[in-house]
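$ run holo --ligand "guanosine-5'-diphosphate" --emit tokens
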Amino acid sequence: MASKSPKGPELSIEDYAAGVKRGDRAVLARAITLIESNKPEHQARAQELLQALLGSGGEARRIGITGPPGVGKSTMIDSLGTHLTAQGHRVAVLAVDPTSARTGGSILGDKTRMPRLAQDDAAFIRPSPTSGTLGGVTKTTRETMGLLEAAGFDVVLVETVGVGQSETAVAGMVDFFLVLALAGAGDELQGIKKGVIELADMIAVTKADGDNVARAEAAAAECRAALHILAAASPDWQPPVITISAKENAGLDELWGLIEAHRQALSKSGELAAKRRGQAVQWMHEMVRTRLERAFRAHRGVAGLLPRLEARVRAGELTPSLAVAELMKAFGLESE
Ligand code: GDP
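-- output --
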């Protein structure tokens, strides 16, 4: 297997930090690779770098985008991103793709899916890390966002396919969560999970062009009605439902205008700052959970005991509670 370590001569933390700050793409790419690395020495250096960069750069608009495969995510991101760089924004695209983490092949990583943006000097596209669990991938994505902000990117688009828990993970790290949906054969929405609608700050029905316009409008109306019965997650924002066509470049101005309106509304009320602080705390708890579980599983006494206890619980010989009590004792903790 190819080594995941950053290539080229070793850079000092100062070199990394200076390169990232001046927006050097090669250094930025290597810094992200450092963040993605599972090697303890790389992880320690990555943390040093993040610490060194703390407070540099502004806060980007962090936007999550989800939708089932084929809904038009890449086409939309290519159009929207190009539109934004033309207005002077610097746009980064990251992907959280738990399926690629599992198979080792990145579906979302293919830069040719966003041909215009991939050629754009004001844009930076980074595929999903191809190793790690969803938790590992989202940790990398969160930390990479900090690097991108230090490098002066003011719009970060985080793309995810509607698989597993990835939408919840992405919604937990962005300011705005955009759900893309497709009109089905009737006027219903296709391939959209109920739990995901609850996370949405906006729903955009895609491919509203040609003879699909009427169906897209009908699906949007249906969706508005469904949203109406949900209690709004924010006192300052009622999630709108719009139709877009990335192919015909229609609706993208409106889409961006709404994202900006959301930012203004939540900035003014203080909700945006509170949301970001809340996400940071949540992330801290998530990392504590992950670390504790890792330490627990790696613990010598626990590692030997766990399979035996699991077998006994499976066989119905031992209650789960007593098994946990034994494990906690082996770990050095008194059970509750
Ligand atoms: P993703 O899997 O969500 O990234 O979807 P893609 O962006 O790859 O799009 C899937 C297919 O839908 C491609 O064949 C696109 O050409 C097509 N597509 C994307 N956006 C539009 C659109 O606005 N209108 C139409 N008619 N087709 C589109």
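-- notes --
The radius of gyration is 22 Å.
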